[in-house]
From TrEMBL:
It comes from the Bacteria. It holds the Pfam family FtsX. Belongs to the ABC-4 integral membrane protein family. It comes from Candidatus Woesebacteria bacterium GWA1_41_8. The lineage of its organism: Bacteria, Candidatus Woeseibacteriota. InterPro entries: ABC3_permease_C, MacB_PCD, Macrolide_Exporter_MacB. This is Multidrug ABC transporter substrate-binding protein. One of its GO terms (molecular function) is transmembrane transporter activity. Keywords: Cell membrane, Membrane, Transmembrane, Transmembrane helix. The chain crosses the membrane at residues 23-43, 276-306, 327-353, 365-387. Residues 287-397 form the ABC3 transporter permease C-terminal domain.
Length: 404
């Protein structure tokens, strides 16, 4: 049997003799590997982004939503329908009582989010207007860079004051100073008392830079509401989350029917979102992996053509002493080399593409996605290279030498 090193060198020389065809043969693998890495990195990046947003929001938060949206095990499930905001039975009295319960509960805040037109001297924008209670800003880690926050007095008296996101300030005021100016919200005048530091889209559901916050009592007045869409309850620390959920549920069960509210912690909500994103990421990776199979078929076809073209060469080598195993090994090496070359180039393209995309959208390349894509590319070379290799190794040397 010929030494492996010599067989390997013969395989590489064969590939280099047909550089153009070799590159085109590897193209399917290149596209497949790059696609897998890019799509998986997008899914992973989105998961990490959402996780980071929840961490910024705080791991010690418990949410009370109107309607029945939680499963029996405390998980988040919308199988029974989304939160019933329009039919909410939650009130500011409930929020105040929860804040005073003590024990594992540190404080509580209320929030109502409604779309409305916001205008100033002819400039108008349709956006989310959040009615908030005094503790809301601290609980969602939002800081006012200029001016002041909405305080307890503003909420108690229902003052017509507002704090704006940076994008809203730019759209309405341009380079002018917004503090002290009056804006119109749903045909009501509100004084701008603060500008929120630039943040971006938050996990709490909207773009903080592009919204307006007003006292929740003022929001209830101008929109004709007397209920609350969402209540956030803050535990004294993360270890008290379960105790806080129990305390909140015990209080609300005496005030409302069990189907009129749901108590959910942020970790349950995050687990549900991540499980959904995990399925989406796997689906995207699976779809991209189809191109790896297509690339493998391409390698097999080219290798079969190569066997036909090199029939006389194979016959000559067998006639001078090459064994069936030598021919088999050479053709498998050629197929695997083409796959590995395509896999390596695909990894570089996928990784570089993910870094580029990350400048505009969350994308995180994970080691397991690179290893999986590269490993599959090697496996494709072996699997799809075997059939042509077996065919080449079984050629009869006499018939092969007579082949034209």
């Amino acid at each position: 049997m010929i030494e492996f090193e010599e067989i390997f060198n013969l395989a590489i020389k064969s590939i280099r003799r047909n550089k153009g065809r070799s590159i085109l043969t590897s193209l399917g693998i290149i596209i497949g590997v790059a696609s897998v890495i890019l799509l998986v990195s997008l899914g992973q990046g989105l998961q990490q982004y959402i996780t980071g947003q929840f961490e910024n929001l705080g791991a010690n938060q418990v949410f009370v939503l109107p309607g029945q949206v939680g499963g029996d095990d405390g998980s988040v499930s919308f199988g029974q329908g989304p939160p019933n905001f329009a039919g909410s039975k939650l009130t500011l009295k409930h929020v105040e009582d929860l804040a005073k319960l003590g024990g594992p509960i540190k404080t509580a805040a209320a929030e109502n989010d409604l779309p409305a037109s916001v205008s100033y001297r002819g400039e108008s924008k349709y956006t989310t207007v959040a009615g908030i209670s005094a503790q809301w800003s601290n609980m969602v880690n939002i800081e006012v860079g200029k001016g002041r926050e909405i305080n307890a007095s503003d909420v108690e008296l229902g003052r017509k004051v507002a704090i704006l996101g940076t994008s809203m300030v730019e759209d309405l005021f341009g380079i002018s100073e917004p503090l002290g100016k009056e804006i119109n919200i749903a045909e009501h005048k509100f004084e701008v008392i603060g500008v929120i530091e630039e943040i971006g889209t938050q996990s709490i559901g909207f773009d903080i830079d592009n919204f307006v916050a007003i006292p929740i009592t003022a929001s209830q007045e101008i929109f004709g509401q007397d209920t609350v869409q969402q209540v956030m309850v803050q535990a004294i620390n993360q270890d008290e989350i379960e105790a806080t959920k129990v305390a909140v549920d015990r209080y609300l069960s005496r005030q409302l029917d069990e189907n009129e509210y749901s108590v959910i912690d942020s970790s349950s909500l995050l687990e549900t979102i991540n499980s959904i994103l995990g399925v989406i990421t796997a689906a995207l990776g699976g779809i991209a992996a189809i191109s790896l199979v297509v690339g493998g078929v391409g390698i097999m076809n080219i290798m079969l053509v190569s066997v036909t073209e090199r029939t006389r060469e194979i016959g000559l080598r067998k006639a001078v002493g090459a064994k069936q195993a030598d021919i088999l090994t050479q053709f498998v090496i050629e197929a695997v080399t083409l796959s590995l070359f395509g896999g390596l180039v695909g990894v570089l393209i996928g990784w570089g593409g993910a870094l580029l995309i990350n400048q505009f959208f969350p994308a995180t390349v994970t080691f397991w996605s690179v290893a999986l894509a590269f490993g599959v590319s090697a496996a494709v070379g072996i699997v799809f290279g075997v059939a042509p290799a077996i065919r080449a190794s079984r050629l009869d040397p006499i018939e092969a030498l007579r082949y034209e």
